[in-house]
Write a structure and sequence with these properties.
disordered C terminus, about 35% helix, 1 helix, about 150 residues, Glycoprotein, Type 4 Pilin, about 15% strand, alpha+beta, two-stranded antiparallel sheet
């Protein structure tokens, strides 16, 4: 007597495998987002340190754009600004100056939702727009940041 799998047994195995895959895939996407959030937070802290270093070494003036950090003397960061992990290919983090005489800045990632943004309000606080999915750093007091 020859032993082999029947068609029904094979279909049951395929069904069980497909159920397991459908459970695992959403969790994998969540882990990717968590990794990208951690990456964005780390890069934003690095960029904030670079902007503050630029300020100290360039007559107490913040850079007009993040790309100014790549050509600063002394060298602050490498030849390119890191890309936002949530944005389209080769899109850098967003940098904006504001407040009285551009004394404040904000650097942000669009976040996992892909549409987050932030701005400096007239009261010199950070205002998030398009939802609250952006990740940002700023030189404003921690009390002004959510």
């Amino acid at each position: 007597m020859k032993k082999a799998f029947t068609v029904i047994e094979l279909l049951i195995v395929i069904a069980v495998i497909s159920i397991l895959v459908s459970i695992i895939l959403p969790r994998f996407k969540g882990m990717q987002d968590e990794g990208n959030i951690a990456k964005a937070k780390g890069e934003l802290r690095t960029l904030q340190t670079a902007v503050e270093s630029y300020y100290i070494h360039n007559s107490r003036v913040y850079p007009a754009a993040l790309t100014d950090l790549t050509t600063a003397t002394p060298a602050i960061i490498g030849t390119t600004v890191p890309d936002d992990p949530f944005a389209a290919a080769s899109t850098s983090y967003v940098y904006t100056r504001g407040g009285t005489s551009n004394h404040y800045y904000i650097i942000y990632s669009i976040g996992p939702g892909g549409n987050g943004s932030a701005a400096i309000s007239l009261t010199n606080t950070v205002t998030e727009t398009n939802g609250s999915s952006c990740i940002y750093v700023s030189n404003m007091s921690q009390d002004a940041q959510p």
